[in-house]
Amino acid sequence: MASGTYDIITIGGGLGGAALAKVMAEHGARVLVLEREKQFKDRIRGEGLGPWGVAELQALGLYDLLRETCGHEVPWGDIYLDSLQIAHRDMVATSPQQAPLFTFPHPAMQEVMLQAAEDAGATVQRGASVREVQPGTMPTVGVERDGHSKTLQARLIVGADGRSSLVRKWARFTVQQDPEGLLIGGVLFADMALPSEDVLPWWINSRLSQETLFFPLGQGRVRAYLGYHRQANPARLQGEKDLPRFIEESIRTGAPAEYYKGARAIGPLAMFEGADTWVDHPYKDGVVLIGDAASASDPSWGQGLSLTARDVRVLRDHLLAHEDWDAAGHAYAAEHDWHYGVIHRLDNWMQEVFLKYGPEAEARRARVFPLIAQDGTRVPDHVACGPEVPADETARRRFFGEE
Ligand SMILES: Cc1cc2nc3c(=O)[nH]c(=O)nc-3n(C[C@H](O)[C@H](O)[C@H](O)COP(=O)(O)OP(=O)(O)OC[C@H]3O[C@@H](n4cnc5c(N)ncnc54)[C@H](O)[C@@H]3O)c2cc1C
Known about the structure:
- The protein is globular, with a radius of gyration of 21 Å.
- Helices cover 34% and strands 28% of the residues.
- The mean pLDDT is 96.
- With 403 residues, it is of the alpha+beta class.
- The protein has helices spanning 15-25, 51-59, 63-69, 91-94, 106-119, 167-170, 243-253, 304-321, 325-355, 359-374, 382-385, 393-399; strands at 5-11, 31-35, 48-49, 72-74, 76-81, 84-90, 101-103, 123-126, 128-134, 140-145, 148-159, 176-177, 182-190, 199-205, 210-218, 221-229, 264-265, 270-273, 277-278, 283-284, 287-289, 295-296.
- It starts with a strand and ends with a helix.
- Among the domains are: 5-40 and 60-73 and 97-178 and 282-344, 3-Layer(bba) Sandwich (FAD/NAD(P)-binding domain), CATH 3.50.50.60; 357-399, no CATH class.
- The strands form 4 sheets. Strands 1, 2, 8, 9, 10, 11, 20 and 21 form an 8-stranded mixed β-sheet that branches. Strands 5, 6, 13, 14, 15, 16, 17 and 18 form an 8-stranded mixed β-sheet that branches. A 3-stranded antiparallel β-sheet has the order 3-7-4.
- The longest helix is centred in the last third of the chain and has 31 residues, at 325-355.
- Helix 9 packs across helix 10 (359-374).
- It binds flavin-adenine dinucleotide.
- The site of flavin-adenine dinucleotide (FAD) has 37 residues, from helix 1, strand 2, strand 3, strand 9 and strand 13.
């Protein structure tokens, strides 16, 4: 093998790139991870998975490692709809995966995952910024590190470069985008007075088209999120100056004001566009996309990490099953279209019913909420259980009260 030639090069060392590197290096593949950050800072990225994401991490052999290093198990999920508590849910007892919710500080998770990739035999280069990708039968990557430029080759290039992926552009994929809908932002707090680190509380205030969630991360740290429909509230909160407004809006949404007494922000505040972006069939010409590069789902529903872990598992399984990695790439892409497609459809239903703004949405809620109060199984359970839940027209009519 010429130096600079690998089986796999992953562009990005987030959950997607690092996990794929680890699981493929374990099977003897020569893997290189190119990650531009030398040190990870708080980018306000996903820090909590539902039971189906836990099961994906388990299938990849990553769950115990994360739990023992930086993770925190949260056995209970509480949901409040318009101030009324509608669920106090034992996640292990009520999920088919028999698993809890699971949280971690995102930068710590990335460090653990990259170390695990290296321990499995992958080469990890930090401070390595990819500038170009050339697709083809032996695709190449142009990378800059410490002021030097290099071109590297691999059998397969993996675009795992996140929600603003440039690999998509370089490899000439077409990016699709939903219409603008929700905005969502978050802040990391210390000393927040949550009643317990064993419960993840989630308030949905449909009258305001707003939601707020609190992810206990262990050791007294909590990631607080606030999301809203941009037609109800177009303010894009950003930076220290907007912190009082973030807290005020969270309390207005339903969160107890006591949570914030004595709480200290220990990370930045930033708000993001919720609208999904995705690529149909995210493989061509030796370049495959995984994680947010393939499909960045609306963070409001907390599915991105689980989808990323699913992408890694599906791609690994096809790479191990096929001698021909072009065929493996196409097989992965077809499966990706299915699992992302279901989550995307169900997330959009959730937005329509719970957070959409305007008189039509209010009329729908007047019809649907009493039905949900009688029978909570009308609400799709994909946030906990993943894409295997019913998502056909019958399920939609049941949720929308149109039978
Ligand atoms: C506000 C917000 C809240 C969220 N909350 C949740 C949640 O509660 N639960 C959940 O499951 N998901 C959540 N998500 C989504 C979750 O963060 C993502 O789905 C997940 O991080 C995707 O992982 P990834 O590896 O694909 O990308 P990333 O984590 O973005 O990693 C990409 C990596 O690529 C590197 N990179 C980028 N470009 C280059 C380049 N040119 N060269 C080299 N390296 C490069 C970056 O530095 C980065 O380390 C949230 C997202 C946002 C924005």
